[in-house]
Automatic annotation (TrEMBL):
This is Phosphomannomutase/phosphoglucomutase. CDD domains: PMM_PGM (cd03089). Transmembrane segments: none annotated. Gene3D superfamilies: Alpha-D-Glucose-1,6-Bisphosphate, subunit A, domain 3, Alpha-D-phosphohexomutase, C-terminal domain. Residues 384-456 form the Alpha-D-phosphohexomutase C-terminal domain. Keywords: Isomerase, Magnesium, Metal-binding, Phosphoprotein.
Length: 481
């Protein structure tokens, strides 16, 4: 690894380089020339001798991946290009080949965006504190200098390898679906990479797959490839009901996230899926550790503990969770955003493996999915509520000041501000990329959720420095006798 370089006072890529990846508008914020610089910087910072690359179906992705490869090979590294793949398929290649990797995708963002998700060998993430900051600094310096550093005398070689069949075979060694009852499943690929991977992964299984928007199209002609937005699963819900299907699956653009709807077309919360998969993993490995981020339902740690496992609460974000997976030797981790992490998959997130677990669990039972997941529906929740504010830190401080001295309340700042009462909690945290505050509320009753939501939003959006009038404030007293 090279020594840190001085930061250029001119070029600033802070709008392009995020906390966990590179992401921005093409060609306004970055282009193939920038991608070539990232390839050279990635090799210099990681010391990689060989790099594996992959890309999604966006129009700009193949060119960006080729440019990155030019930069990497000019610095002496070989590049193994896997071509079209999902992000977890790239993680598979990085893990099984023990190579650093770079995936070109902007996940669920609109068509004009693209990005790079980078990892070290074994799918270990590259984030701000694990190399991304150094990569950005080099790219900034070289941009000001008018180009990359001189090529080495012996450049690396570019080769191509399709990993789809091997990826699918590996997933199917982790979850056995051969003995399940026949199921009908509607899969909405959102014109993203699930349209490429699902036919191979699910081939030959006792499944009647109804494909929805499997055509690869980075313009996303039917809906955004973000299944957490209710507007983007309307077609899936309708089709599940029309087909009389057992369940529906929706994937985001790079297919590393999976969202589930039941036989009624009703959304199944990612927290419920986290609990369901956690029980399956704990059944195989009794007493193991399972991670959950602090936005998942309180149901999740309750279910883990009831099954004899150890629940560990983490910050939001894949780089934090993957690091904690390694530190705690957890077998599984889940996020409210429908990212699911598996020790058997190099601690990386894979929506496809989570989907296989859901199919296996449902296929082993006679009842509908709604009956399997009703045990995990213990609390009411607000969902994530975003507020655009001028000064997010000041608004968080105002909310903290209004709540910190109330009896029966605890406050922590693991990720933003979390305030917890006897049968409720809320979390208020800033976005990593926008001047937004994100609020999540959970409580035993919908009435308490609404009261908490309104009181916090009053402070956040109205800019108030005191809480709402006492008549509107939620009680902090323990309602149980």
């Amino acid at each position: 690894m090279t020594a840190p370089v001085d930061r250029s006072p001119h070029t600033d890529l802070s709008a392009l380089v995020k906390a966990y990846d590179v992401r921005g508008v093409v060609p306004d914020q970055w282009d193939e020339g920038t991608a070539e610089l990232f390839g050279a910087a990635f090799v210099q910072v990681t010391g990689a001798l060989t790099v594996v690359t992959g890309h999604d179906m966006r129009a700009s992705s193949p060119g960006l991946a080729r440019a990155f490869a030019r930069g990497a090979t000019a610095q002496g590294a070989d590049v193994l290009a896997t071509g079209l793949c999902s992000t977890d398929q790239l993680y598979y290649a990085s893990g099984t080949l023990d190579l650093p990797g770079a995936m070109f995708t902007a996940s669920h963002n609109p068509a004009r965006y693209n990005g790079i998700k980078m990892c070290r060998a074994g799918a270990v993430p590259v984030g701000q504190d694990s190399g991304l900051r150094d990569i950005r600094t080099l790219v900034e310096q070289w941009t000001d200098a008018g180009g990359p550093p001189p090529a080495v005398p012996r450049p690396g070689a570019l080769t191509h390898r399709d990993t789809l069949d091997d990826y699918a075979a590996h997933l199917r060694t982790l979850v056995d679906l051969t003995g399940i009852r026949p199921l009908k499943v509607v899969v909405d690929a959102g014109n993203g990479m699930a349209g490429h991977t699902v036919p191979t992964v699910l081939a030959g299984l006792p499944l009647d797959v109804v494909p929805l928007y499997f055509e690869l199209d980075g313009g996303f002609p039917h809906h955004e490839a973000n299944p957490l937005d209710p507007a983007n699963i309307v077609d899936l819900r309708r089709r599940v009901r029309a087909e009389g299907a057992d369940l529906g699956l929706a994937f985001d653009g790079d297919a590393d996230r999976c969202f589930v709807v039941d036989e009624r077309g009703e959304p199944v919360s990612p927290s419920a899926i986290t609990a369901l998969v956690a029980l399956r993993e704990l059944d195989r490995r009794p007493g193991a550790t399972v991670l959950h981020n602090l936005i998942t339902s309180r149901t999740v740690p309750e279910v883990i503990r009831e099954a004899g496992g150890t629940a560990v609460r983490t910050r939001v974000g894949h780089s934090f969770i993957k690091a904690e997976m390694a530190r705690t030797r957890a077998v599984f981790g889940g996020e409210h955003s429908a990212h699911y992490y598996f020790a058997d998959f190099w601690n990386a997130d894979t929506g496809m493996l989570a989907a296989l677990h859901v199919l296996a669990e449902l296929g082993a039972h006679d009842g509908p999915l709604s009956s399997l997941t009703q045990h995990f529906d213990r609390y009411a929740a607000s969902g994530e509520i975003n507020s655009a504010v001028d000064d997010p830190p000041a608004r968080i401080l105002a909310v903290r000041a209004a709540w910190q001295d109330r009896p029966g309340v605890t406050v922590d700042e693991l990720d933003g501000l979390t305030v917890t009462g006897p049968d409720w909690w809320f979390n208020l945290r800033p976005s990593n990329t926008e001047p937004l505050l994100r609020l999540n509320v959970e409580a035993r009753t919908p009435e308490t959720v609404r009261a908490l939501r309104d009181e916090v939003l009053f402070l956040v959006r109205a800019g108030g420095s005191v809480a709402m009038p006492p008549a509107s404030r939620v009680s902090t007293a323990d309602p149980t006798p």
